[in-house]
What does this fold into?
Amino acid sequence: MSGSCGRNPPPFPENEDQEAELDTRVLDSDEYDDEGEDIFTGARSKPITPTSAPDEGDIFSEEGSYIRTDVHHATNGLHSDEELDLFTEATVELTLTNTTSQGRREIIGPTASACNTTPVPNSILKPSIVTKTMEELEEEESGDHFELNIAVTNPEKIGDGMNAYMSYKVSTQTTLPIFLNKTFTVRRRFSDFLGLYEKMSAKHSLLGCIIPPPPQKSVVGMTKVKVGKEDSSSAEFVEKRRAALERYLQRVVAHPSLLQDPDVREFLERDELPRAVNTQTLSGPGLLKMINRASDAVNKMTIKMNESDNWLESKLQEVENEEQLLRRLHAAVDSLVNHRKELCSNTAVFSKSVAMLGSVEENSALSRALSQLAEVEDKMEQLHQQQAFSDFFILAELLADYVRLLGAVRCCFEQRMKVWQRLQEAQSTLQKKREAEAKLLWANKPEKLQQAKDDINEWESKVSQYERDLERVTCTVRKEVLRFEKEKARDFKQHIVKYLESLLHTQHRLVKCWEAFLPEAKAIA
Amino acid sequence: MEGSSAESALSVSADSIRITDLTQDGDVLTFAITSQKLNSSAGVCVFRAYEDFEWLQQSLFSQENVPGLQGIIFPPLPPKALPLQSNMQTKALKQLGFLALGQDWQGYCKALEFYLQQVATHPTLCKCKALDSFLINSESPGKQRGRKGIFNRLSQAVEEMRKESHKDVDNFFQNERNKNTNIAALSKVATEKLIDVVMTEQKLALACGHFSTSLHLCVNQDDAAAVAFSKVCLKLSDIIEAVKQNFEKVASNNLTTLGLGLDLESRYQEAEKEMLFRRTCKLIELETVKKSTEKAKANKREVMEEFQKAVEKEFSLISSVAKEEIERFHSSRVNVLKNVLIGWCEQQLNTAKECAELYSQHLEACRNMYSE
It folds into this structure.
């Protein structure tokens, strides 16, 4: 999800047409049949607002502007050519069960006209919200109007001994109006990133959003850095972490709801952040988290949700399968990386042995050729080393990120299950209250009747509230899953191209090495 | 060097000797050896097993009436091949060194072929009847038990070690011995390190294969997004397959050119070492005889002096043959190494270019696919 991604699907408008939108927006799946309509019957009345935009001002209101976030990795030269492909495919798949006359909607307000680098002729706009959405998003991609680039750089060690920590420079460059400046820089430490995750998780996960997970803690890695070991493994660890933090932030801002979250903005802009202490594993909140996780796991095993949505159910299965597959792929790439490193060291040793041979050789041309050979092997060792890094950072980390992201997707499904559970409990409580009322009627105790009726009203409204919540969460989960899948395909495509480029680059350098050596070999007399 | 002179017993052209085929029957390998008759256009083809090569080598060692035989650097015979079994890698490696790593027997056949060519082009050895018989007799000579040769491989007994470092009377030979000790050790090390590199390359090819296969498992046709993702995975699978094939080629190039070359150099240095050792032993013998002669009582003295003269003569013959051999060896080895290095570089260069081309095509295809 890093790289030039980040379309912001339009915020939901507040009018009756929304169920049409909802229907059509999620109609990317071929499996999605008539069942869809059942799910959304409940959703008619209430508009669904992007929940994370409380008081953000009109910039984010529903009829207002769209935000286009073009999250741009520093070295990523790959651009929006790819998005068009995705959308082309998506448009083909649509099976519209609900093309109402209001199908074509102006989701985008006046600001849409501002983004007119690629004018979308009206004839292209089909009578479907999704198409419109995709077209408009295409427009976003080709236009460069709103931008947000984030880079995490300059890791610096602050302090000494076991209290030391690494501080990273987070630089943002943006044209988005929600930020105070166009470019700004802050310094953050790892626990700040974790703190950000905690906050967003607390606020958004209950709504069914997929929250990108932060990089993992590593006691071993950090201890080496703290202790001050200046070797290559701790440098590698710091680089790995820096890159992971960068990707993490890029994913966060690529998520439309999260970008609107003030905590995210504060993270990027504010000079000094209060220290996030509840991210430490052994703190009070840390322990609480562990307990919660354990109880979640138990819940998962004991409660089987009555899933009426086939699409979601099969998606969950897919997610679980994919997580396994990606884990396996990651292990394969890991082994590849390790073998390459082994090749590096073997090549270096071989190079030395050839150099020794060259030094005792009497025939001067042969001796020279052997020394040159040793140098060639040395260069190859460097190339292997670089390629190993490429393998790692381009492929292995991508796969590792996605294994964790798929875990986050699963969490998202679990949140939905919790909401469903709450509904179930409320429904059963309501049932009990009704039974209590009936008993009272039968026992003829009028004084308690009023209380019972009040209770029933209270629980009835709770039940309908929770039903709406469930609908909303379901809708969000669907949306999120679709967005995730598109991002994933795009992310992988980008990375493959990057990987190929690195392979090609290495190969060209290798050709040069051999070409340089050939005349030396021929010169032996 | 041609193998034909008036006294030569060799009836085929040395340059035409080839090992053209190899058949395996259980544990037994049979080699098809072809050569061209010198005085006609007829070709000869015979079938030999490894034992026959051993017989040939023994016959060469045990020739009689060849002055200074011990001063000859005998072309080294590659060790016996073990039949390819998957779990025999490490054991086979120790025995065969380089020759064990090739998937097919090409390298090994090449090494044996080179051995025969070296024997046939050697000015003295080509005259050995055993060689001719080996090359043209339809019946294999292996049944005949040759006389036990006079030389065994250099053993590492303490006695031998002491002898090996015995100071020489001739500067030329002392220098040569020193150099040889160095180069022999270093080329052995270089050979072993190259083996390590090639094995790692082979491991990398395997790892790529696993990765590529696992990617195929990601194919899922359920919906548009899954299809898109599947396509991406398959593309990556193709790319990794290309990486794998590249590693296989690189490893194979390393084996068949530089690997064989370093291995040959290493074994030839050992052969030279053995020759020098034989001469040193003779030197020690001579010095011992001289001492005894000095100490001998008058009645025994004449006999001893005769004996000493004989030993002196042997020693000087060996030394003069050795000198020629050393010079011949030096010039030919440089040539061999030159060809090895050129061949290796050219093959690796070609492989690298092909691979770059392939990656380039993949990249082009990816870019087109993703931008349409």
